[in-house]
Amino acid sequence: MVYDIIFSDNARDDFYILSPSIKQRIKDKLHSVQENPLHYFERLKGRNDYKLRVGDYRVIANINLTLKRIEVTTLGHRKNIYNLLP
Fold first, then answer.
1. What pLDDT does 1 receive?
2. Is the dihedral angle over the CA atoms 74, 77, 82, 83 positive or is it negative?
3. What is the number of structural domains in the chain?
4. Which member of 23, 34, 52, 86 has the lowest number of beta carbons within 10 Å of its beta carbon?
5. Which residues contact 53 (CB under 8 A, 6 or more apart)?
């Protein structure tokens, strides 16, 4: 079963400011993990959300197993992405 990918408003804004090459890498990676996201995403310590590594960038998402949905909540460079998390 393929999981749907949904971007929050914040994640969509973060995505559009990235360079075209980084955007394409993130899109390709997200499409490649749609069938088995838990194999590629890693749970963040002390949190309920997950991270996906795409080179020097990280995609932070909630994975809903019941609805088969990956909700991207934020994304950005690894050096400052964790400071943006609530």
1. 81
2. negative
3. 1
4. 86
5. 42, 78
